[in-house]
Design brief:
Two copies of one chain form a homodimer. Chain A is 39% helix and 23% strand. Chain A is α/β, with parallel strands linked by helices. The first copy, chain A, has five domains: 4-105, 3-Layer(aba) Sandwich (Rossmann fold), CATH 3.40.50; 133-194, Dna Ligase, domain 1 (2-Layer Sandwich); 198-418, D-amino Acid Aminotransferase, Chain A, domain 1, CATH 3.30.470; 427-555, Rossmann fold; 558-588. The longest helix of chain A is centred in the last third of the chain and has 32 residues, at 557-588. Chain A is elongated and about 110 Å long. The termini of chain A are far apart. At the A-B interface, helix 1, helix 10, helix 12, strand 19 and strand 20 of A face helix 1, helix 10, helix 12, strand 19 and strand 20 of B. Chains A, B: It is an enzyme of class 4 (lyase). Chains A, B: Keywords: ATP-binding, Decarboxylase, Lyase, Nucleotide-binding, Purine biosynthesis. Chains A, B: Its EC number is 4.1.1.21.
Chain lengths: 589, 589
């Protein structure tokens, strides 16, 4: 903790790094312009004024530090190589010149490999990490026509270096776009990438230590105008199995790099549910801002510090958990005027579950000047609270966009919001046959009333055994917390589902045409030791729904209060009837 | 957000206030010594060097600000009164002298009332807030002897002003202590307080806005050597009803004050479960540090800023919730040497669920130089992770204490740790009669195996109906998440319990001497609509235990993984038997 960290770059990532370093007692010396965001929150050191691309300034920084790190990868890796490998000349008190050892974390080789996106992709491919197919190109018309033939149109033409927030990418839809693409990326080293038709973008923050890699949860990222707009943790509507695959791939990719630090890994989920890597950032990342609130004892910034200081603790399963069940992050981009963001800022301050982070930067159109992180018990709640702020951000964007772009944007945004509004269902309701549905209806209606999001389907133990097992085995991964299963006769469904999941399963015995439901009841309740089914009364889907709600309510105070009100209402109803009966007498009642 | 806040005092409370203000974009100007903790993290303003008790410096600060606030109540309230009531003289650009309005928050009347503890107690008594009985005293032997007769020995002799962390309090055990007490508190205004024999100390942070008060959760505070040592949220082993009573009393007390801001309210829970107020601090408080991690979008520091800026949002039920189910805060006090705390700091950094806050203060024996906040899913987990750090803090204390005190301390600390080690039980297991225990034993053994903390008792629906209802009605407040109830015959217990709680209730039908358990089964499972019981098979306590574990596992990944392993083990067992049967043939098997 007594080693000094030198930081190349003092933007918002450096600022949040300092916010993590201050309470840890770690001294950070910053190289960047006067009054840069990081310097505004760190008066613990004399910082260096200058550019993080200036070799002489980097050497000056190295003289004051034990470890150098970066908040941006577009740095001069040759100076860093020189410092890491040969040390830095310092004058000792007696005027002699000696060389001091200074670490560079992550290693300069990592920075050099990553800052050239084509080198990065080649490196990853060599290490067995799936990425979009890329190839080097000759920067002329015939070269790009050849690429179009080989990769097919559309393809992405990308600058190898200094590309971020979409700057440096050009989508080549057809051969006709080639001259524009060459003009837009003139003078830069280029490569081409096969068009990746993904259904979702994910990101995973990975911490690399000297002998391990640790993954934060996978998050869903939403980009707009080639800039990250929103981050959802967990991702909406993809299985935990896929999320874990994303974490594994991200860890594998980062594990192939050199040195310690935190890495932002962007990935694509393809239509067939395979996951490929898009690109890596060797530093804290926009998609990891949410960790400040969601992982309040181990944000990505604290991880960067602890990993470069080589004192990162271990985590079970190499996964850093989120304390917040559902988190949404919204970037604040500068609007058309310097005050356009005021309404959004006020809305964030007025939202109790939202944390506002303003970076202390001058507002410019589309510049990242802050972000908002919102935490909640469920994603449904988080989305509900964040949506008004997203609407304000969208308004700012409309104001900012040139008119031509604006019309197209409006159409897309409307289409998107129409297809959204789906909440993560927490209760899965299934039945052996659609003839059981009438019995389930009162319970489903009650789940509606209680505002518990649910999903209804049919899985027959006897007619669709494979589907049933699949359904049960993936239920937890799909985000369900409880399963309700109804069946009649030789009612095997609830027990068979319980046999393929570790979630609580509630069984509703459905009364058939013979035996008054006793057959169903005993088939459901008399499970062997080891496989419990929470059985409710025959045909009593209301109690199944209430039980599901009680289970969720064990961890959701608001829902438990709803249930208490429900009980109070029942009590009043009966008390009312009692009063009526006592008043009217039993004959008239 | 564009108003400037002037802060009297730049210690750790001011530092954490600045850490909250920076991302909100609120400018804070600090009056305190050069390089004080708050100034170390705030380079956004030119601060003022000087003492927060110097009237001229306070006026200088007021000239630069729109709102003045404090991180300490021992300030000159007469200057603040003058500034708040008359404004402050400033020179306008054309050289003219005008008066600028500057708000003081909380109001100077609040500061003046609170900084004199006897005035504070009189004020609270006048507003119907229960406190320890206090009386003004004459500071001589005969005066104190009179007090001893009236209040009884022991009583507390307290300085009216400038008392904190136990400094200014003297326990007068008998008349013999009077000369020492007078010597210790010589020259200060004094009052006497009846000895409060409390069983627990609580604290509640309250936010006062211009038309409301909001309460953070009640926390348990543990003091040692008259300094706050530990904070537990929620408090261990007291009902949520009592916690709410504490919040209500704290809100009532703060509601009687003037102006806006955040207040730390210390309370005593007496042996008879009444709650009385100990004292109030008109500022962020040590007992509210935990909110930085536990309420990551609304810490006590953010609340102070939003309330004094009069933009505090509202919360349902006027309660600010904790995102963390269980939180423990441990203060780091300086040790015998400047490096004594290194082991504790290292332990905090090595604990993934712990956040370290070092204040950038020079270490002196018993000085508050930092704190550690630990978050977890259960208090059992939180205590388990924090206990090694408490042990390190205890070691530091042993080293720091003079030898005489040390021996006494050791005895107390051993007695305490022996009586601890109890975890918060999550499953309540109850039965109608002890004759049901043999049926429950396999289930209880399984809860042990799975590491699920539980509590076992007997509550008969027919023989102890009041006890049963009490038990059920308080179960959620007592921290239980699931109830298992076993009964036989006319088995009313599970259903009656379900009628008095909103927690999920699992019913185990116990087989009696007649009817093969069918009587119990139907009495338990055939509940009316509205009151569900999760019924398992007759005598199958194993499944009841597993079901309870699945319910907890819905929100506890580690437990779910244990259950998945349990299922795998069952599978292997059966597969093993199948192999044996296939190999040996059914005759030999």
């Amino acid at each position: 903790m007594d080693r000094t960290v030198g930081l190349l770059g003092g933007g918002q990532l450096g600022q949040m790094l300092c916010e993590a370093a201050n309470p840890l007692g770690v001294k950070v010396v910053i190289l960047d312009a006067e009054n840069s965001p990081a310097k505004q929150v760190n008066a613990k050191a004399s910082h260096i004024t200058g550019s993080f691309t200036d070799p002489e300034k980097i050497r000056e920084l190295a003289r004051q530090c034990d470890i150098l790190t970066v908040e941006i990868e577009h740095v001069d890796t040759h100076v860093l190589e020189e410092i890491a490998e040969e040390g830095i000349e310092i004058q000792s008190a007696d005027g002699k010149t000696t060389r001091k050892k200074v670490q560079v974390q992550p290693n300069w080789k990592t920075l050099r490999t990553i800052q050239d996106k084509f080198l990065q992709k080649e490196h990853l491919a060599k290490h067995g990490v799936e990425t979009a197919v890329s190839q080097a190109v000759e920067s002329d018309k015939s070269g790009l026509e050849r690429v179009g033939k080989e990769l097919g149109f559309p393809f992405m033409l990308k600058a190898r270096k200094d590309a971020y927030d979409g700057r440096g990418n050009f989508p080549v839809m057809s051969a006709q776009d080639i001259p524009d693409a060459l003009e837009a990326l003139k003078g830069r080293g280029l490569y081409a990438e096969k068009w990746a038709s993904f259904k979702m973008e994910l990101a995973v923050m990975v911490v690399k230590t000297s002998d391990n890699t640790l993954a934060y949860p996978a998050v869903e990222t939403i980009h707009q105008d080639s800039i990250c707009k929103l981050v959802y943790c967990p991702p909406r509507g993809i299985s935990t199995h896929l999320q874990e695959k994303a974490q594994d791939l991200a860890r594998k990719a980062v594990g192939s790099m050199w040195g310690n630090g935190v890495f932002g890994v962007e990935l694509f989920v393809m239509e067939n549910d395979t996951i490929i890597l898009n690109e890596i950032a060797p530093r804290p990342h926009n998609s990891g801002h949410y960790t400040i609130e969601a992982c309040p004892t181990m944000s990505q910034y604290k991880s960067q510090l602890l990993s470069i200081l080589d004192i990162m603790p271990s985590f079970p399963g190499n996964k850093i958990p989120s304390l917040s069940p559902a988190t949404v992050m919204l970037n604040i981009l500068g609007g058309a005027s310097k005050t356009s963001h005021n309404a959004l800022v006020q809305s964030a301050v007025a939202t109790p579950s939202a944390a506002l982070h303003m970076y202390g930067k001058e507002s410019k159109p589309a510049r990242k000047i802050g972000h908002i992180t919102l935490v909640a018990q469920t994603m449904a709640e988080a989305e509900k609270a964040m949506n008004p702020m997203i609407a304000l951000a969208d308004e700012m964007r409309m104001e900012r966009l040139p008119a031509a772009q604006r019309i197209a944007a409006k159409a897309t945004s409307m289409a998107k919001s129409a297809s959204k509004a789906e909440l993560q269902p927490l209760v899965a309701v299934t039945m052996g046959s659609d003839s059981d549905l009438p019995v389930l209806k009162p319970g489903l209606a009650l789940l509606e009333t209680l505002g518990v999001p649910y999903f209804v389907t049919i899985t027959s133990a006897h007619r669709t055994p494979a589907r049933m097992t699949d359904f049960a085995a993936n239920a937890a991964a799909n985000g369900f917390k409880v399963i309700i299963a109804a069946a009649g006769g030789a009612a095997h469904l609830p027990g068979m589902i319980a046999a393929s999941t570790a979630l609580p399963v509630i069984g509703v015995p459905v009364k058939g045409s013979t035996l008054d439901g006793m057959d169903s009841l005993l088939s459901i309740v008399q499970m062997p030791r080891g496989v419990p089914v929470a059985t409710v009364a025959i045909n009593n889907s209301i109690n199944a729904a209430l039980l599901a709600a009680r289970i969720l309510g064990s961890y959701d105070v608001e829902l438990r209060q709803k249930l208490e009100r429900y009980a109070k209402d029942m009590e009043s109803e009966v008390l009312g009837k009692a009063e009526k009966l006592e008043g009217a007498g039993w004959e008239k009642y």
